[in-house]
From TrEMBL:
PANTHER family: ACYL-COA SYNTHETASE (PTHR43347), ACYL-COA SYNTHETASE SHORT-CHAIN FAMILY MEMBER 3, MITOCHONDRIAL (PTHR43347:SF3). Residues 4-56 form the Acetyl-coenzyme A synthetase N-terminal domain. Gene3D superfamilies: 3.30.300.30, N-terminal domain of ligase-like. SUPFAM superfamilies: Acetyl-CoA synthetase-like (SSF56801). Residues 65-447 form the AMP-dependent synthetase/ligase domain. Coiled coil: none annotated. This is Propionyl-CoA synthetase. Pfam families: ACAS_N, AMP-binding, AMP-binding_C. Belongs to the ATP-dependent AMP-binding enzyme family. InterPro entries: ACAS_N, AMP-bd_C, AMP-bd_C_sf, AMP-binding_CS, AMP-dep_synth/lig_dom, ANL_N_sf. Residues 510-589 form the AMP-binding enzyme C-terminal domain.
Length: 625
């Protein structure tokens, strides 16, 4: 039997024995006696009576083991021309002081802390400081506008907010403080304090009574020890796009998460403690939570926090430069990042300047790895390129080539096989498993493994209705796909209103709410259409109210501006076209899938339930125009 099959079968036939063995690889304050039990909502929970602290596992534990001088974190910032290294001792000491600052300002176990920060080491310190106190952090991606931040502040009700004076994008500085002030003004919930880390590129005005200068407060603070928490206590809430305008607060617990993070570093990424792991992502996304901060540190290796982009900081050789300079063992990013490099340096000429001999593997996730990108990276780097599929909700890969257990054959377009712990099935509309190669709803049989979400923050009903109630005993991923005759999983895309733009997860439903609120708009549809660089881009189609006459270009400008103000630049909403009517079923459901197929030039079948077939020619006319 293959090593993968043996491990996979153990995880499926004796999940408690399998996860007990994995749990023994982390340093609990109180080892769990119960491995799996159900909570008050009937949801399976891992290690419920165990006690631990995630910051302890990520920092103090390694210092105690005599590895305090090992490099924990490398900060590389081409946008500020800064490079800095922190040993485990140094990072632990800094995090203990930031935790002290929070505690002295009233933050305690269970309190929420919203973190809105650029990619600087203080962002990771803020997260770990919360973990140290048992406080629950909620990091909000810097590309989101104040309105999105306000929604998250209202939902999480944070005691304090942590931020920096600015973020730095390609050739532009983004002052964060005015965004924070606006979000707090618009939110019904008011945090008591706002800690601002001043960056010399743009200082913030600390004019409000609640504003605190981060560095001054940290300098005065006493280091705080790790507070023991229950395995099932939340470590963080991370909001992600769903089908409506209101984002979902994915809850992550401490114990299951720590065990899953530790397990994944070896089994999926094949990383040892002396290796250097680089997830080229952002701490605002789940990839950043799991693989910039928690997993590499819990594993005791070196992580890289990169404040730059794959291109234009300063050139498309940035990824290769960082891999060379720090002897990166495994690089993880989204396919869109490599498409950006390929666009600007198609022959990968810059690659020749650098030595990538230490780089063992390149991992990709966040969106489908299209075969041309896979082939380009393979050909240019001669490294194994591993596609793996996961979601904010799961926190770690559901399907992957398990490189630390057994390197399997790669099939282009497939994320390979289910990771041990996950029972992946493809179901039809009535919840029956479909035969090999037939597409359907990709679902996970419960119990989900450790690390996956147990609920949606303060809205358990949304967890039940959004994920669990469609098929009894299964979690529905929201993705469609199929499993082939060899058991390889192919994810074909979302079957709901979620799209992926440059590896960023966004809700077209939310964009529709904003576009539809315009006084001239009677109804609208926002769909994700194919884009060679970003994978998908949103496109709005609007029907005007009867009698409304206006300049369509001016309307487009207004709608684009509105989405940018309310969601943020990251939405990349650039086009809104006026149509006479939208194709619908007789029951009034907009046929978004067909609109997308027309926009992408794909063949489509007209459903028998269509209300007015001529509405399709209208869409073709406008899109071809
Ligand atoms: N703070 C503020 N603004 C941000 C931001 C942040 N953290 N991140 C992105 N934005 C802004 C950008 O500046 C841009 O603004 P503009 O419309 O004024 O130009 C807009 O949001 C769109 O950003 P993006 O879609 O990222 O486009 P880009 O041209 O700046 O970069 C890529 C394109 C492909 C290089 C970039 O998206 C990338 O590196 N993607 C990898 C994605 C990734 O890491 N995903 C995480 C999962 S692994
Ligand atoms: P996020 O929650 O931002 O990580 O986005 C999760 C979604 O991204 C998934 O539901 C998929 O639609 C998509 N996704 C992530 N990884 C992959 C992958 N390897 N292949 C295909 N789609 C992916």
């Amino acid at each position: 039997m293959s090593a993968y099959l043996e491990e996979y079968q153990w995880s499926q036939t004796k999940p408690e024995s399998f996860w007990k063995a994995q749990s023994e690889k982390i340093d609990w304050f109180e080892s769990p006696k119960t491995i799996l039990a159900k909570d008050e909502n009937g949801i399976e929970r891992w290690f419920p009576d165990g006690q631990l602290n995630t910051a302890w596992l990520a920092l103090d534990y390694h210092c105690e083991q005599g590895r305090g001088d090992h490099i924990a974190l490398i900060y590389d910032s081409p946008v500020t021309l800064t490079k800095r290294k922190y040993t485990y001792n140094q990072l632990r000491d800094q995090v203990a002081k930031v935790a002290g600052m929070l505690a002295e300002n009233g933050v305690a176990k269970g309190d929420r802390v919203v973190i809105y920060m650029p990619m600087i080491p203080e962002a990771a310190m803020a997260m770990l400081a919360c973990a140290r106190l048992g406080a629950i952090h909620s990091v909000v991606f810097g590309g989101f506008a104040p309105n999105e931040l306000a929604v998250r502040i209202e939902d999480a009700e944070p005691k304090v907010v942590m931020t920096a004076s600015c973020g730095i994008e390609i050739a532009k500085i983004i002052p964060y403080k005015p965004l924070i002030d606006k979000a707090i003004m618009d939110s019904r919930w008011k945090p008591e304090k706002v800690f601002v880390f001043q960056r010399k590129e743009e200082l913030a005005e600390l004019s409000h009574e609640r504003d605190v200068d981060w560095q001054e407060a940290v300098d005065k603070a006493k280091p705080h020890a790790c507070v023991p928490v229950q395995s099932t206590d939340p470590l963080y809430i991370l909001y992600t796009s769903g089908t409506t305008g209101k984002p979902k607060g994915v809850v992550r617990d401490n114990g299951g998460h720590a065990v899953a993070m530790k397990y994944s570093m070896k089994s999926i990424y094949n990383i040892e403690q002396d290796d250097v792991f680089w997830a080229a992502s952002d701490v605002g996304w789940v990839v950043g939570h799991s693989y910039i901060v928690y997993a590499p540190l819990i594993h005791g290796c070196t992580t890289i926090l990169f404040e730059g982009k794959p291109v234009r900081t300063p050139d498309p050789g940035a990824f290769w430069r960082v891999c060379n300079e720090y002897n990166v063992t495994a690089l993880f990013s989204a396919p869109t990042a490599f498409r950006a490099i390929k666009k600007e340096d198609p022959d990968a000429l810059l690659l020749e300047k650098y030595d990538l001999s230490k780089l063992k593997t390149i991992f990709m996730a966040g969106e489908r790895l299209d075969p041309p990108t896979l082939e380009w990276v393979l050909e240019k780097t001669s490294k194994p390129v591993i596609d793996h599929w996961w979601q904010t909700e799961t926190g770690w890969a559901i399907a992957s080539n398990p490189t630390g257990i057994e390197m399997m054959e790669v099939k282009p377009g497939s994320a390979t096989k289910p990771v041990p712990g996950y029972d992946v099935v493809v179901l039809n509309e009535v919840g029956e498993e479909v035969p090999a190669n037939q597409q359907g709803f990709v679902a996970l049989k419960r119990p989900l493994p450790p690390g996956t979400l147990p609920t949606v923050w303060r809205n358990h009903d949304r967890f039940e209705t959004g994920y669990l109630s469609q098929f009894d005993g299964y979690y529905v991923s929201g993705d469609g796909g199929y499993i082939d005759e060899d058991g390889y999983l192919f994810i074909m895309g979302r079957i709901d209103d979620v799209i992926n733009v440059a590896g960023h997860r966004l809700s077209t439903g939310e964009m529709e709410e904003i576009v539809g609120a315009h006084p001239a708009v009677a109804e609208c549809a926002v769909i994700g259409i194919h884009d060679d660089l970003k994978g998908q881009l949103p496109l709005g189609l609007v029907v005007l109210k009867d009698g409304v006459k206006l300049d369509e270009l001016a309307l487009e400008g207004e709608l684009v501006g509105k989405v940018r103000t309310e969601i943020g630049a990251v939405a990349c909403f650039k086009h809104a076209l006026v149509v006479d009517r939208l194709p619908k079923t007789r029951s009034g459901k907009i046929l978004r899938r067909i609109i997308r197929q027309i926009a992408d030039g794909e063949a489509y079948t007209v459903p028998s339930t269509i209300d007015d077939p001529s509405s399709l020619s209208e869409i073709e006319r406008v899109l071809n125009h």
